[in-house]
Amino acid sequence: MATTADIKNGLCIEFNGDLYTVVQFQHVKPGKGAAFVRTKLKNITSGRVIENTFNSGVKINPIRVERRPYQYLYKDDVGFNLMHAETFEQITLEEHFIDRPEFMKEGMNVEVLFHSVNETPLTCDLPPFVVMEVTYSEPGLKGDTASSNALKPATIETGATVMVPLFVNTGEKIKIDTRTGDYVERVKE
Asked: How many domains does the chain have?
């Protein structure tokens, strides 16, 4: 068992019967009253972020987790097939383990978070940014808009649709933020 003094970003804890990671924390010592720790916790299974306040010195239950490097191979009717980068052991993950599976491309390196005690996978994290080729996009016409931030839908090589600026055309490569699903920039080769 640990206490609130051990809370840090990235710590995985068991809270209210579920697993959470600490996204943000702040130790607060008011002039009057007892100290406390204000936290933002992300539910590992649902991805939902909640805020919680722990009184100073309260016992918390940290969970040991390991991040392991995997490479995405292919998707079949069972799930997403991944291969460990060092041992070449293969695993299959269901879609609910992966945040934003529409941005997974064959050969992509990902990190799988495992529960250390019972060796079960918890989540699969994509790299923060990926480069994808635009397979289809309507051509943007000059003078099409009065503002400079007009967007149009574009289909990328994985089949997902991303909103891009009017100047992006079919065949170009773009950088996408996998955490939000937003267009970042055009990539020159």
From this structure: 3
